[in-house]
Write a structure and sequence with these properties.
homotetramer, Glutamine Phosphoribosylpyrophosphate, subunit 1, domain 1, 6-stranded antiparallel beta sheet, 19 helices, globular, disordered N terminus, iron (chains A, B, C, D)
């Protein structure tokens, strides 16, 4: 196996936003790494490029395994699990950043481990540190040696240099220097630690399994191991689970939370619980809202599989137009068309999706998709639907126009590659060649996630920077590299769908 | 790579019927093997254990590649495709037979190749030869040496011994000796040949791609390469495609066709066209018929993913009960949990499916599944749904009770492992612990596939042996091994749901 | 792993003759395949491309494993050995033919297996069948289907068509149709069978291990398992070993034996016993003979490692010139520089051999090599020695000029690539740029192997066709392809070193 | 690929001393990594467990590759070399330490890399740092985070914390803190750096290739790339090669050199030049000295292959007893009998060596081996020779008794496992069951390496701690762990052969 892997480059893989990470940890069960493997398998949708697990056993110390590829392929065999003994373990799944200059190396795969004077600690992280470059420069000047190109490694080095006498306090020291979005799962020999940044941008939940404690990005990972969902880790909270129980600390200056609204739209698994409701129900509500805002006469409501499905069901229920599977997904598509022939690469979306020709012919079709990023896939799907003889194609998008890159742990294209950054709704409709195209309004999205009065523009309830350009934390590294934040006034004109 | 592979043994894999093969061939395009790889990828649902491709090029002769695993992993790279040059190629995907005494060897993977005095031919086959054992004994006595344990190899040896001077005529000779169900794609240096048995049990379709001809198990494989669906190969037809065009022969005694009705229920892909209609529409019609026959008061109609989905949509549309995704399938489950730890193996169905807890709680749920084989998965799903707090669970099965094994190319358990062979509908309901359970009637199924008057018991329109025990071809090898066919009268009593 | 492998193509690999096979079998021990694996490991020098083992166990039938690469890498793990149970097993190691049009496929790797009406048999073979093409054509015309491109498969098909009622008799039938050189090890469920062609061209020896019987290409494979060398299988003998003991048959017309004299020069391992003496001793005697025939004044006698070593020691002992290791072989060179960079491929012989510069500088060196084939390696070695500052370089070759290809199981270049087919001894010396070069005479070689009066030209005691062009069996397939045998008279002039 | 590998455990692998490393670097050629790969291939005898290469290219920065296994298998393909562009590169081969508590991880494989404020540097090392534990503790307390368990990583961290403004000066700072034996090859973006510890325990040589500079553990690696041997790097020298030329620094307090005398006996390749003479000649001289000190009447002198060969030739030349290959080494034995069956593992030395039975029978044999470590292999060889019918077996060992572990980069067993630490010469002879056994005296060894008056006991010319227990640098980490150095007086009694 190569020590590094080129990010996959199929055309249709470019045309979606990707969560960069999922984290999971458990303390208090024998063979903790088995539970972590199962939890990571349930979180695989948050990252498919690589995964890692670290465990600790009093006799055999800290052990780790890191692999490119799926959890099921790398972390479910006895052979691997036996190398990861102990009653405390954490793990991580990672998505490939599409804009990175070189392929991911196995040393970039989390969790990261550091040996401190008082013992070792391992740490994994979902999110993005927006001042990582500055921190890294400073640490190198003082003699720290980085193992990886990962921003998260800064946290370990900051901890190593702290003068605090215990690891959680060193972590507090370190995290106070860090800007951005982070949901962290960390461990020492005797502690499982979860931390969420003060804004709570990324999710992190706490669960119980008998006497054991579990921390995860999402609740769906509790279900697979039979753990009970206790509560969310609160924004700004550092929670320490040991055999004795739970301790909470709040090391940061309090701020009003800004949870990522896109977790509702796309990232989280539909069977996870967010805000007391299943994500599926929220998405169905999004579809209903979309139908109310943008009705159309049609014969069928079809989802773009699989992410558009719940919203399409909601659209159908609200509009009364029958729901149907007009596009069939080949369930054997994986990320592993490694270096296909030119001819096969060019097939693009047809390797993955096929139109249900006999069903679609002569029909007026409402196509429900979760978002439009570059628009390349949407355009091809529209062509396939028309080739199959559809009479009309109406796009209904279950989110506002994605016009701004995310700097908080979601892999987005550069701004100039985002279709909605440069085109109005009508222009996008023309670009895709559709009969109509409508985005959900930002207020509509807020209503669907439970904010009856829509967005509070004075003090927004969520991080919606990808739609609004309103960044709750200034992305300092990116600004240093030339990214220009704009004033709300200028923005308004460019993203008319808001 | 091992030369053989143990069939996968996850508990939830035992509890479904599996198609054993898909076939695909093309003549008249450069790099024919690329098209075959794409076609096989589209037919992957018909067999995931292994695949093979043979091509012919005037300069480099016949070449072949055979691999365990998915088409996308083995047959899409330039490295492999370049070893398969030429303008004519055929391929095959294969399912593992669950009852075989030893693991599949790579030499058992089709297509098979034979060098005859007038040149070589390769052949692949979907179906099952019911007199293979007797033929094999006879051939060995006359000095034939078998390479594989596959029944299909008999055809090649019968062809080798024919006195005819051309390969299609040798194939006619050979196939007249063969009993059972077979849809064959074969090739010589200059011909692509398709054959369907006289009953037409398995599907086979003919398509065009510019000047090239294509033969496939299903039409969905035409869509991926942009080929046009011309017509079905007729039952009993041997069709020869060359650069000059198409020639049809009918070498068998004519019989009334008996197409496999289960292809409509489960095997074929929903976007394939069978009988002039998409399989999806037929399954939606099955769901409607099921709702008419077996209505129930409930809050939600949920499919068992993914095969129950179209019927669940039909049930919802007919009954007016809202459709919802109450069970979420982990899209990263594959066949590759190879030798997992005991603990992980025991997770069984939870590795694959999770209940949408927040949605299901307190609801009366109609669960629509395509069939019940052993019932093991159904039972676990019912438990998961109840654990999540559902108030009632009503199973609605989109086919009649599966009470008889198939001998025509479908991998079914021995009769005593089939739940419906030993239990009545009520007993099955009690066994699963459901609040109610209803199968679709055999007449209802016939109506849904377009036979307005239901089954013609005097002369059934389909092969429905798995439901009725009415085998259109006597399975001679199995009878020799002790299988007892029963009279319709005795059968009636045992399978009350008919 | 690929199903086929390109033959290695390092320049220095072209410049030697290669044995094509080693065979080994055992009956009467539990886990017979372990013994076969060890025996094949000891015979690895006879073939490194691939190996195979077949075993038979009453409960689990015939089993086989075939792999490209070394025995130690493929056949020594419990995982593999457990798939090969039983008390009788045979095996084979194979060399890649350098002139084959396409890479070896795994299906070409022996032993071959055939299922006959009275049970199965497996067979492996060292040698070459000189009328294989004609036999193959005839068999195909009668309906046999070949699995491989191997000549040896003919034997299995001829056996399948025999009307005899037991397998050894069918083998007699088959072998009477076969021309060429063959040392065969075969097995049925209860018998281990060894056969040597009437001329006894290739070696085959019989051994005992307690109550078990062992058959091998060479005695060195008896030593590794602790078996006792009983006797050679005689030319023309078919020996059958069962639990009851040994039975000998002589199915062929008796002929005067012509054992391959090159086995003494190069192929056999130095610790094997041939003709009652260790091969090492024979090679030392060859070196002594060479020193007597071709003395020279010099400071050091150095072998070309490793095959020239025993003859160099003999030369030193006879001449009194000190023996020294002037060329050091890198023991980590393998056959596995797979697709090296252009630059590394061009290093050629330097990857494998290095001159002991400090030792050689200013010395007159006698370089002893076993033979000269294409001369490419010899030329490079001479350059390296001179670069290191040697004062004189005298080649002494421990065999006569190799001027004719072998058709009896040794991989030789086409005649026009053999240096000695086109150049006289003096021309070769000039070509290599040496100060002198002398071959051993054919009579000298005969004396060294124990024929005090040298070669009996009326009725030669050995097969020496590679030196003399005197082929004891006409190579009919090659003649059909245009190879011209010459009269001894014409030959004499071309190969003056005789 | 596993991220770590269990050290090989064949019985006969335990019974030798193993060099732990070879280093190689080049600056000033395009594709420097190709030259490093070739150099490492030539140094493979110094370490077979794993290898690594780092290169630097202005456009693509620092790149590295690390692999378990042979250089030829991992670093010779275009695929790998292309990932290592640039005109400066260094590399390392590593032997597995047999006493390490856990398998080597890939992160322990050198070269190590560190990013400093003024740019990156990579470093690899042959030797052992005897105060590494203390240094590591200190560094961790100050916030350094170690990537590996390798002692060499300390150097990188000490460099990172230095306040010097350029990398060579930082290296001087770091190395002044380090105790033990080290021959280092390091690189920056524009410099190739070699350093040898003040005692010069391990070898390091400087060469030229046109305008390029090369540094290597041994001269044999110059030959393979055609480089010219310029001189040894001097003990205590830090040499910096750039495109402009060579700069020498001497950062350490001067000491009298103590080169490892065992490099002459065993570690270095026979074609390398040490002290102006080929190692082969020194070994031949050792054999002559051994014959003079310990003559015996016999028929044959046989080496234990392959390391005993030059000394056996020397013994033969001095004694007049003919040299012969009485033991034949199977050249296809590798380190890759991975997890063989129990039965095969028990074969032990027979998998690797076979006695030339026909040659040995009835003879009086002098067996020359380079050293006796645990004696397990010697004992088995003696048994094999006797089984073959030898009349007498006389061991002559080409070095003094190995009675003390090495702490300077050679992998030796714990003292209580060293046969000569607990037995006298006569006891060892009895233990092996030989007719006689004699070691070379320490003075004899000194004479053979060119010290006409033998060892200067007041101020020994070499490091001979493994024979004498006279450690030139106190092994502080080992002393901390309980190792007891003894006074020369007490030692004398225990190791009588001195």
């Amino acid at each position: 196996m190569p020590a590094s892997r080129t990010p996959p480059s199929l055309p249709f893989d470019d045309d979606a936003l990707h969560e960069e990470c999922g984290v999971f940890g458990v303390i208090g069960v024998p063979d903790a790494s088995t539970f972590v493997a199962l939890g990571l398998h349930a979180l695989q949708h948050r990252g498919q490029e690589a995964g890692g697990i670290v465990s600790y056993d009093p006799d055999r110390g800290f052990n780790s395994a890191r692999h490119f590829g799926y959890v099921r392929d790398n972390f479910t065999s006895s052979e691997v699990i036996e190398t990861l003994p102990g009653a405390v373990a954490i793990g991580h799944v990672r998505y490939a950043k599409s804009d990175q200059p070189r392929p991911t190396a196995i040393r970039d795969v989390q969790p990261f481990f550091g040996e401190f004077a008082m013992g070792g600690a391992a740490l994994s992280h979902n999110g993005n540190i927006t001042n990582a470059n500055a921190l890294r420069r400073e640490l190198i000047e003082h003699g720290s040696i980085f193992q990886s190109s990962s921003d998260s490694e800064c946290i370990i080095h900051l901890m190593a240099r702290s003068l605090q006498r215990d690891i959680p306090s060193r972590m507090e020291d370190a995290l106070r220097r860090v800007e951005g979005a982070f949901s962290i799962v960390a461990m020492t020999r005797t502690k499982l630690i979860g931390v969420r940044d003060p804004l709570g941008v990324r999710p992190l939940v706490l669960g119980r399994l008998g006497d054991a404690w579990v921390i995860s990005s999402e609740t769906c990972a509790f279900d697979i191991i039979g753990a009970e969902f206790v509560r969310e880790v609160e924004p700004g909270e550092l929670v320490i689970a040991t055999r004795e129980g739970i301790e909470s600390r709040f090391p940061f200056r309090p701020r009003k939370p800004r949870f990522c609204i896109f977790e509702h739209v796309y990232f989280s698994r539909p069977d996870s619980i967010l805000g007391g409701r299943s994500v599926y129900e929220t998405r169905e509500a999004i579809g209903r809202e979309l139908a109310r805002e943008n009705p159309v006469e049609a014969d069928l409501v079809c989802p773009v599989p699989d992410s558009g499905t719940p919203a399409a069901i909601g659209y159908s229920l609200e509009s009364g137009i029958p729901y149907a599977m007009g596009i069939i997904r080949n369930q054997y598509v994986g990320r592993t068309f490694i270096e296909p022939t030119e001819q096969i690469r060019n097939m693009g979306v047809r390797l993955k999706l096929n139109v249900n020709r006999a069903l679609i012919r002569g029909k007026r079709v409402v196509l429900v998709d979760d978002s439009v990023v570059r628009g390349t896939t949407s355009r091809k799907i529209k062509e396939m639907i028309c080739d199959a003889g559809a009479r009309e194609v109406h796009f209904r998008i279950a989110s506002p126009p994605t016009a701004w890159p995310c700097f908080y742990g979601v892999d987005t294209p550069r701004r100039d590659k985002l279709l909605a950054a440069t085109m109005s709704e009508d222009e996008i409709c023309a670009h895709l060649g559709a009969d109509s195209l409508k985005f959900l309004s930002l207020d509509g999205l807020y209503r669907a996630v439970g904010e009856a009065n829509g967005r509070n523009n004075e003090s927004p309830q969520y991080c919606d920077a990808c739609f609004s350009g309103d960044y709750p934390v200034a992305p300092s590294d990116m600004i240093e590299q030339g990214f220009r934040m704009e004033t709300p006034a200028r923005r308004k004109k460019k993203t008319p769908a808001e």
